Amino acid sequence: MRSRRRRVARRLPRTGRSAGSWRRKAFLSSFILDSVCWEVVGAVKLWNEWCRTSSTTNVLPTDSFCLFYCLISDPTVWLCQCSCYVAEDQQFQWLEKVFGCMRKEGLQVTILSTCPVADYKTQESTLTLPSPFLKALKTKEFKEQVCCPLLEQPNIVRDLPAAVLSYCQVWQIPAVLYQCYTDIIKLDTVTIEAFKPLLSSKVLKSLVKDVSESTKILKKLLITSESHNNIYI
Fold this sequence. Notes:
By secondary structure, this protein is an alpha/beta fold. It has helices at 17-31, 88-100, 159-170, 189-193, 211-229, and strands at 6-11, 38-44, 66-71, 77-82, 107-116, 133-138, 175-182. The chain has a seven-stranded mixed beta sheet. Strand 3 and strand 4 form a beta hairpin. The protein is globular.
């Protein structure tokens, strides 16, 4: 990807929003993002029944925002962490705003998503599936090799991940969606590491941080998550 193609890796919410968004955030924060190589260049604030962000300007970015990061060494590489829920009636505006500020020529998009394994449609019992597991769905223009099996019919993807992929299909943008099916509802290393095959993909391998440091960061994130999940009576 040194040909200056702009790449966008997105983390997007679904059902089980809190755990799903935390997993993708933990994966990207552990293996790719850091404050030295990346800088925040923008944010999208939303208000709906699931996400009520402040209308105040001059506020620090929080987990209620969609944050946009730019790779300092290569400004054509962007990453979006979407920690808030984007309602169906807001998705078109979200897509228009985000993609409207980018040149579509040379653009390539990678989307990360998670959902419950119970949503996976198969003739087998979902209890026998080796959860978590990855499935991929791509646009016609995406010609690179995917890092996992393709999603079989009649399975579908939903919410913002589906909207982004559909937008890319209409605009003939090479895009791939990696969906992780899991039966664990809290932040965990098993589900996070299910995304690790993506680190060898053409679009991400040049962005991977030092593995030893990644492991330390991941452990810290898990400890923080556990402390937040505790209930004291």
